[in-house]
Design goal:
The structure is a homodimer. Chain A is of the alpha/beta class. The first copy, chain A, has eleven helices and 20 strands. At the A-B interface, strand 16, strand 17, helix 9 and strand 18 of A face strand 16, strand 17, helix 10 and strand 18 of B. Strand 17 of chain A pairs antiparallel with strand 17 of chain B, so a sheet runs across the interface.
């Protein structure tokens, strides 16, 4: 017994000793002020990789987490689940990667591996999934996970994806969330050439959805609340842009679409979109407003507009994320990014611009500028 | 011009002259008091049939219409859209029926015939559908349609279905609404042997859903709010009965079912059922509470329980209604009915019992007792 305790003590001590120093930017309360933060990550285990982070995207859901829009959160919090970087260390059992490879990390860094969802390669629906940040990692003493607004990250190789060498690396990070979140349901419902489809909300997620569906040959209508994005929608291949504040734009769209994906992060009327679905059409919800501003669908609406389906979708499994990444690079589908410096005041300012609708599509933090 | 006017006048006069006298029971306001009512129906046109009504079911939606639970209504109103009877007259172009045949009528008596929904044999989703009652018939000078709590009905043969001679006629009427409303989505989603499925609300529609899914070999769990129906659920083949007011009954059901059909006509928590769906599971809404008591689903729930779908379904097309009727008779699947007399006070009383949850499954009015 004494021996066991001693071994356990040394093992823990060694694990503590080998923890990886990390630095980045955290918020220390819901006030949204980013400041430099130093912390440690768990040691590189036998199946783990350590990635030096080069780019981190700012997702609207990062803003929701920081502001506690969905739930009470733990601080300090380092957000960031759109991560692209280069591997600097691998554990002895790692086979998928070697030092020097490019790798990406999205919203998850682990899951139970045993439930139905995990067995179906849909780890995002595992009830024990470990999120990249704002999560407690049951595989590492329930340590609080910290995200990609930092210089490095350590995780099991299983939850990292390979970034092709010919990728436009500075644009890859947002594919890990905005890309897969739209790619997954679009491919799950089988959008195909000639389909009349819609994208509600033309921001980070929305402009990826447009590109994926245009690539499939669908006729894409884009919905947003501003005139500022009309030209961008056409440029990305949409056949129609609807400013929903303009009643004229909305005419003639009821019962016309086979699929609409809603990426809207603010309050809106979901039934307006359900009415645009033709028979057997589907509305997929991927964008989420703050809980207090989240709209509802009264269930009789489903009956009055019978034969149309509504579902939600979360990111995608790791296997599908790799497929999405390979597909995106092969088809030159990337987010449109505005690069910002790794600096507390700059990130704080970027968040405010996201809230004010002043970011067109996606901010990406150039983590190589971290001092 | 004069000639045309004269022809039009005589045509109208003849049509008026040949109108069919009808008598039944109507409510004259939302007070729910049924009283004898005499009126006329349009003449039997070349494609029409006249049915002497033998049985008329009382559907919960009749109660909603009478009480104006969903919308303002026109009175006097003769409800009834679960109709079984015998043909007494046929127009000269009628081919599907002959005098003496048994025929059934459900919720619709006509539709445009030209839209996508009509072309797909899903006339219930035609935006110009003519309902059996509470509707204005654009094919007959927008006359106000009156339903099955009456001695006869006249409609195009296209919207009547053939009742097999070996049917248990006194039980057939509720199949025309409660039967098809459950049969249609159950077959559309492809419920099959071994599937774990649920039926929420074990009344007129619910007890049909149980029988259809048991017949397909599914493992059916029934949900209701009373202990009174526990034995009935088991008797009809359910493997489990859940009294949702009993927290113990609800344990262990999350993420287990591939399909749940909700027939509940009162307020409830739809998210409780969405949580019971496993990945790719579907919740179908067919029951509707009064608008004021209709629950909503906040759209973030779709995302948190991603990969599950919600849809509504209305009855079924005429072709599918015929298929359902043939299938039900061939498989001895019928509603459990309580027969009541065609009498104003009796119907009024039956409505109150429906509202009080005192009818077990379905009242059917024996229209042959009409005096």
């Amino acid at each position: 017994m004494t021996l066991l305790w001693t071994v356990a003590f040394f093992t823990t001590a060694i694990a503590q000793e080998n923890r990886i120093p990390s630095k980045g930017f955290a918020v220390f309360s819901a006030d949204g002020q980013f400041k430099p933060y130093e912390f440690t990550r768990h040691a590189v285990g036998d199946n783990d990789i350590e990635i030096r982070i080069l780019y981190a995207g700012i997702c609207h859901s990062d803003v929701h987490h920081v502001r506690q829009d969905w739930a009470k959160e733990q601080f300090p919090m380092v957000p960031g689940h759109e991560i692209a970087g280069r591997i600097v260390k691998v554990g002895k059992n790692v086979t998928k990667f070697k030092v020097g490879d490019l790798a990406g990390v999205g919203c998850m860094i682990n899951s139970c591996g045993e439930c139905e969802a995990c067995k179906e390669n849909r780890e995002q629906y595992c009830s024990n999934v470990v999120y990249t940040y704002h999560s407690h990692d049951q595989f590492h003493d329930y340590e609080f996970t910290q995200g990609g607004y930092s210089n490095n990250i350590v995780l099991t190789e299983k939850f990292a994806v390979k970034i092709p060498d010919n990728a436009k690396l500075e644009k890859v990070a947002p594919l890990l969330c905005a890309g897969i979140t739209t790619y997954s349901p679009i491919h799950a419902v089988g959008v195909k050439k000639g389909d009349k489809v819609g994208v509600a909300g033309f921001g980070g997620l929305g402009h990826m959805a447009v590109q994926y569906m245009v690539a499939l040959g669908a006729q894409v209508t884009v919905f947003d609340i501003t005139e500022n994005k009309r030209a961008d929608a056409k440029r990305l291949g949409a056949i129609r842009y609807v400013n929903v504040n303009n009643p004229e734009d909305l005419k003639g769209l009821d019962n016309t679409m086979s699929f609409i994906i809603s990426t809207i992060p603010a309050n809106y009327d979901p039934y307006m979109y359900i009415k645009m679905l033709k028979l057997d059409g589907q509305l997929c919800i991927v964008g989420l407003p703050a809980t207090a501003n989240t709209p509802s669908i009264r269930i009789d609406k489903f009956v009055w507009q019978g034969g149309r389906k509504v579902f939600g979708s979360q990111i995608g499994g790791i296997k599908e994320t790799q497929e999405m990444l390979d597909y995106s690079v092969a088809n030159n589908i990337y987010p449109e990014v505005e690069m910002i410096k790794a600096d507390g005041a700059t990130i704080t300012d970027a968040y405010q611009k996201v809230l004010d609708g002043k970011v067109k599509f996606r901010y990406v933090i150039d983590m190589s500028t971290l001092k």
